[in-house]
Amino acid sequence: MDPTSRPAVVIDNGTGYTKMGFAGNVEPCFSQPTVVAVNESFLNQSRTSSKSNWSSQYSAGVMADLDFFIGDEALMKSRSSNAYNLTYPVKHGQVYNWDAMERYWQQCIFNYLRCDPEDHYFLLTESPLTAPENREYTGEIMFETFNVPGLYIAVNSVLALAAGYTTSKCEMTGVVVDVGDGATHIVPVADGYVIGSSIKSIPIAGKDVTLFIQQLMRERGEKIPPEDSFEAARKVKEMYCYTCSDIVKEFNKHDKEPGKYIKHWRGIRPKTGAPYSCDIGYERFLGPEVFFSPEIYSSDFTTPLPVVIDKCIQSAPIDTRRALYKNIVLSGGSTMFKDFHRRLQRDLKKIVDARVLASDTRVGGEIKSKPVEVNVVSHPIQRFAVWFGGSVLASTPEFFAACHTKAEYEEYGASICRTNPVFKGMY
Fold first, then answer.
1. Where are the domains of the chain?
2. Counting beta carbons within 10 angstroms of the beta carbon of residue 255, is it exposed (0 to 12), middle (13 to 18) or buried (19 or more)?
3. pLDDT at position 208, please?
4. What three-state secondary structure class fits 427?
5. Residues forming beta bridges with residue 90, ordered by sequence position
6. What is the fold, at CATH topology level, of the domain defined by 206-289?
């Protein structure tokens, strides 16, 4: 059976979570933390065994290669046993550890999706501004290790824009605000092509929100076991945080009616299994506030997200700017906070209106500028926007023609993976 008649496999490797599934589905089959737990004890054993006993060294090496876990299983193993060491293969949107990444893909394909990689085309994602060498490494692993028939590496912001299709009209011009766990990118896209010179990235992302919540709870003296404090902060962020319109009013609300706003978190100590509980107060709105008032978290970077988005659009070609303001698409799990899009739209509108007013004042009111429409698009599929965009793209018949095939790889080598054109053969 021809691989093009089967659905393609779509894997979106993020810093925090990896989403994997088959093209044509609305949601990924699995969403797992991007983490690998490797058993170090076999490697240590092979080093200590005598040099002459090569067979025991060899078997220890084989066992070390086989004995690893990914995702939630990896986190559980590292908690329950000291033999397993955690490795995070992706940091700040870039792959840092290729051995761990290869192992991760191996488990994704064989253990979770349970498919034969030789029977499916693959669509993988990468973050904007990734070095071309990284694409080559990805191509080598996919074609050499897994022997895939075809591969396409897509920029995740373009996929997020494809996922932002509204039911009636298809807009491939817009700004993608992709706030993941390890990186935040603001990427302007015009007619499906990334405006590379205008991409902005900021060093505040979902992990920083978690660390800030962890710090606030620690400073307040909540009784959280140290080994579980990061995971507890992450769960608090995902379950209870929201974006407020005015931080002072929000403080007053919490102080007036603590019973209404303060939540209780109950957890279990990983080592002893004993239950513990703590209160969640100001963290609920202060966590997401780091995107709008970064100075409360760090003195290194103090530019709010709306200002960065405005700078990004202002640096784009002038004839695309109105269209970009009109279609600002949110993507990534860290944009899922309640009212995040409203706050972002309000702050951006203030900046744009102030500029239009200043321009009108400068020309003395002789020429009236047309108001600029600012629209932040929020949709329920934001968390999986990139994966869903990949699923949509890989379902089209043109997708298979745009992929790099195994035959091309064998003829030209890994350098073919450097470019992944949207319309192959047209340009």
1. 1-29+109-157+386-427, 165-203+303-377, 206-289
2. exposed
3. 93
4. coil
5. 95
6. Actin; Chain A, domain 4 (3.90.640)
